[in-house]
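We emphasize that the prediction below concerns an isolated chain of 348 residues; any contacts that depend on oligomerization or on bound cofactors are therefore not represented. The input was used exactly as deposited, without trimming of termini.
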Amino acid sequence: MERKDLQGLTIEELKQFAAELGEAPFRGKQLFKWIHKGARDFSVMTDFSEKLREKLQQNAYIGGVSVEKIQHDKKDGTRKFLYGLQDGNAVEGVFMKYSYGNSLCVSSQVGCRMGCAFCASALHGLVRNLTAGEMLSQVYEAERVTGEKINHIVVMGMGEPFDNYENLRRFLELLHHKDGKNMSYRHMTVSTSGILPGIRRFAEDFPQANLAISLHRAEDKGRSSIMPVNRAYPLAELLQTAREYAEKTGRRVTFEYALISGENDRPKDVELLQQKLTGMLCHVNLIPLNEVKETGFLGSSRRRAEEVAAQLERAGIPATVRRELGGEIDGACGQLRLKEKSFENHSE
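Result of the prediction step, given as a token string:
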């Protein structure tokens, strides 16, 4: 019998696994609770007999990611993790401290195939999807190495979450389970570049969770030039789907808008953005673009970002300038990139 990876399994699947081992189904529920406490070794499961622990060791393991390197931005407390995967690939994640609690930026894919021109994650294309267990393990490994609880998650790391919808759905459901981490859906945010079928499914499956849409331009030609996804799902369709999402769920949509100097921060760009969003239940999160040398784009100044926010607010569109976190460690928006698993051991 090949050893089974238990990370990312549901309670029902773990009950079935326990039964296959000749154990009572309630052992599956116990396993689930241990896994969601962050356990990676059966030896710590003290409510199991030694014989059962040995049986589990012979027939199963608890997989996931491992923290291989940590970069610490001492200015704001942000930490960037390089997570090693069992197949030799690696992804990145970012731990951020806020007044309302700790948030973790979670990756959903190794690389990305969306091809956004300003983003480091897409430089080498898509390698593969992450499993629900690998996504879940990012949360528990971050808690283990920091010694702090994660209160919120944002699926805004490497990858397009709706390009990996089934694994995303399982991950969110597992994180929410009352016998697991029991995280409220209201504390979960998923960001998409604009995959319309995914937005519609997300509204049905997770009406209490938060949706963020990477917008970045308010007209088709310009958006298509930096975000190829716009060719498949044009702006008018995207904005209509966002309106339907807000009407269906009663929750506002967050539009991420990375300000690129001379590209989308001119007065005419802001006026067009204002026109497109007026009357919608939404919020605009303005992000002075973080530098990725390979893209050739430069970010707007924070002062310009504040001016844009003020203009949108005057028009009745809630807007904020994102607090800049992790800039010293390339942990900010758009800076997470694909790396080979050939790096030094983790260090503070």
